[in-house]
Design brief:
mainly beta, 22-stranded antiparallel barrel
Length: 752
């Protein structure tokens, strides 16, 4: 009875809070602009890029500074005309208006990142149409348009920082959580381009392209100190220093993060018993971990120095994260089991303007990445203690890119470039009878070009082609063509055809421990063809609609399958995936600082396996693929420019788990589960400079304490019961990862 009353109470409380904020929203719609200061200093962009065919001078491509709206009183129409000019660089490798970009683009500004209380880039991405994020409690896994692959570490999304590739080369992974190593306070904006981007970027730019643009040092204060405290003993400290002298600009940043983590209950392991363990605390009774098994610790630093058109930067990250879920048959609650990520990236860039029509951009980078896990296994617990395995992946890559941007006349803009990278990777395992060490050296090289032709102000045609070669992998050609129409000054229609590919990684192609995995030197690239129509319309000042319909066709998908001749798993190219869907949303922004957005995505993502006899298999709905996702958010000024409230909601439809097959000797058993839909609400209050130079952000995540799980990303979560004699019994399969209930974070920032 009490549980029923609590359910009704929180249900009514949820709608009461949402109704209260809606009341504030409606009130702010009619508020006089003099009552609030629109925070232009935190607005989305500092520059406007124009591409005006009526002006025959190539100066039409040059950036124009926005006027200072805090010093200059201008009309509402002028403000929204400026806000309309948000720019993106990732879509074409040069800055352009979003409406001119050859893709379905969204930009998340620095103001949104801070005001909505996002702790990671992954939390920001989950507010976008077409995106959803699963938390595996080791990393955050990004799903795009209904696809989040089994065992995939975001390798089908290319991540850039200031236009430079961040995905490591040994396993192709990229991270959007604390493992990213870039503090939210350093990010100016996040550019997201849906669909394949291989035409300009090559492998990994498969489902989407994400470019994180960091702040210019001159935008940072001399000194910024931030401290965070949150649920489950979460602590973070950040220091940022910046300055400029003449043409020199620089910043440096360092951060420390520590998180103990909650006690976690894995319901699929309820009833699991391991008797006679050498350490009684590792008996795994009931599937409950102790607090601290899900720990996370890291240190990170970064810096940038620029002089005129030359920029040099670096970033460093060293992170440990506990592995509490008992994967691969290891102990469920061993605090000595963890993943260790270590990364160092150095970048240099020089841009040279030959004339107003021609400029060159040269980049050089070095990427060093090491992944190492420390996993405590069960097999020898009855005899001589624990068995420890350590898997290590390392990548050392150096590369360069040279590109030229040429504007022969006002209606034509071209970009042409070439890249080359040298990578030395290693994959090795220690802990078994025969340690495995597999080094791989490879060269990758590419050439690309893109033409943007706009003969009329209402029509543009953008086409591009890239060639990728390698000392190891197949050659690839990646074409793209986009037609952009402006039926009127308020509307944009984009017709897009693009292609993408993802090469198998050195780990997928060459790694073999001869215990469970074997290599396959015949692997080829995964390929994707995308057709998409995008419609954007500005209904009124500050109100715009966005919609898209897409169809993606994937072939040569890499999956793991048992080799019948050896009994070992290997990666093979097998199967086809179709992704079809629609997205729609709107954003509304007022001079008072009020902002609201909402979006919905409907998708049908299914696979059609090709059987060994090349007959067509049955259509199967993908695991971890929600048919619907919906997001809303609003930012409401409550007290002039001092206090604001931000609310986001996320709805994820039901998803099925990956299937896991076990055999305890009585025959194979298939384990699967349907995870119900869930609805999350997050709230953040921002208090700015009531005390000069101080900013306070207080956030509550999962406000209504929703209980939900994400499907496990991988099929390794199998545990076995043992009796006191060490005899194996029933097998248990982990299908989902329980997520946190209601949590909080308080962040205090001092800027001087």
């Amino acid at each position: 009875m009490r549980q029923s009353l609590n359910s009704y109470f929180f249900c009514y409380l949820r709608y009461a809070i949402i109704g209260y904020f809606l009341f504030l929203c409606i009130g702010n719609l009619f508020a006089a602009s003099d009552d609030f200061d629109f925070d232009v200093s935190d607005s989305d962009n500092n520059q406007i890029q124009t591409f005006d065919n009526e002006n025959t001078s190539s100066a039409a491509f040059k950036n124009k500074n926005k006027p200072d709206l805090q010093k200059e009183k201008i009309s509402t129409v002028d403000v929204f005309n400026l806000l309309k000019e948000d720019t993106v660089e990732a879509a074409s490798k040069y800055q352009q208006k979003i409406s001119d970009a050859p893709g379905n683009v969204t930009v998340i500004s620095k103001r949104i990142l801070l005001s909505f209380g996002f702790r990671t880039v992954g939390e920001a991405l989950r507010t976008l149409s077409g995106f959803y994020v699963s938390n595996g409690r080791d990393y955050e896994y990004v799903g795009v348009r209904g696809v989040s692959f089994n065992g995939d570490y975001n390798t089908h999304i290319l991540l850039l920082i200031n236009g430079q590739r961040v995905n490591e080369y040994v396993a192709g992974a990229m991270y959007v959580d604390e493992a990213l190593g870039i503090d939210i306070d350093l990010i100016d904006r996040i550019e997201v381009v849906r669909g394949p981007g291989s035409t300009l970027y090559g492998t990994n730019a498969f489902f989407a392209l994400i470019n994180i643009v960091t702040k210019d040092p001159k935008e940072l204060k001399n000194l910024t100190l931030s401290g965070e405290v949150g649920s489950y003993q979460r602590y973070k400290t950040t220091i940022i220093g910046a300055g400029e002298a003449g043409d020199f600009k620089a910043y440096a940043h360092a951060a420390w993060f520590d998180y103990k983590g909650p006690q976690i209950y894995f319901p699929e392991f309820n009833g699991l018993v391991i008797e006679g363990a050498s350490n009684p605390s590792k008996s795994n009774l009931g599937g409950i971990t102790s607090a601290g098994a899900d720990f996370e610790r890291k240190v990170e630093s970064s810096g940038e120095l620029s002089y005129k058109d030359f920029t040099a930067s670096f970033s460093y990250m060293n992170r440990y994260a506990g592995v509490p879920d008992g994967r691969y048959g290891m102990f469920l609650d061993d605090h000595n089991s963890y993943n260790h990520d270590k990364r160092f990236i150095a970048r240099m860039k020089y841009k040279y303007d030959v004339s107003q029509k021609l400029n060159f951009d040269t980049r050089l980078f070095y990427n060093n990445y090491t992944f190492r896990d420390n996993l405590i296994y069960i097999p020898n617990f009855l005899d001589n203690g624990d068995t420890k395995f350590t898997d290590t992946l390392s990548d050392n890559t150096v590369g360069t890119e040279v590109r030229a941007e040429f504007i022969p006349f006002a209606s034509l803009r071209t970009i042409t470039g070439a890249e080359i990278q040298y990578s030395k990777t290693r994959s090795f395992v220690t802990g078994n009878a025969n340690d495995i060490d597999i080094p791989v050296e490879l060269y990758n090289y590419a050439a690309f070009t893109q033409f943007a032709y706009q003969p009329k102000h209402w029509f543009a045609l953008i086409s591009g082609l890239r060639f990728d070669g390698s000392s190891v992998f197949e050659k690839n050609f990646s074409p793209r063509v986009t037609a952009i129409f402006h039926p009127n000054s308020e509307s944009t229609v984009k017709l897009i055809y693009s292609t993408g590919f993802r090469n198998p990684t050195p780990f997928e192609r060459f790694f073999a421990d001869q215990i469970s995995l074997e290599a396959n030197s015949n692997l080829g690239p995964e390929r994707l063809q995308n057709a998409e129509i995008v419609y954007e319309h500005r209904l009124a000042e500050g109100l715009s609609l966005q919609s898209a319909a897409y169809s993606n066709h994937i072939t040569n998908l890499l999956v793991q399958e048992t080799n019948p001749d050896t009994g070992l798993l290997r990666f093979i190219n097998k199967g086809t995936i179709n992704m079809n869907g629609v997205e729609a949303g709107f954003t509304y922004l007022t001079l008072s600082g009020f902002r609201i957005f909402a979006n919905i995505t409907y998708n049908e993502s299914f696979e059609k396996w090709i059987l060994s006899d090349f007959s067509t298999g049955q259509r199967v709905w993908l695991p971890n693929s929600p048919q619907y996702t919906m997001n809303t958010g609003f930012l409401v000024p409550l007290w002039k420019n001092y206090l604001a409230a931000a609310v986001t909601t996320h709805y994820i439809a039901e998803r099925k788990s990956f299937e896991i097959i076990t055999d305890d000797g009585s025959g194979p058993e298939t384990h699967s589960k349907i995870f119900p839909a869930y609805y999350l609400t997050n709230v953040t209050l921002s208090l700015k400079e009531v005390i000069p130079h101080f900013y306070l952000y207080a956030s509550v995540y999962n406000l209504f304490d929703e209980h939900y799980s994400d499907p496990i990303i991988g099929d390794e979560g199998v545990q076995t019961s043992y009796d006191s004699g060490g005899n194996p019994g029933k097998k248990y399969a982990l299908l989902g990862i329980p997520q946190d209930g209601r949590t909080f974070r308080i962040k205090l920032t001092f800027q001087f």
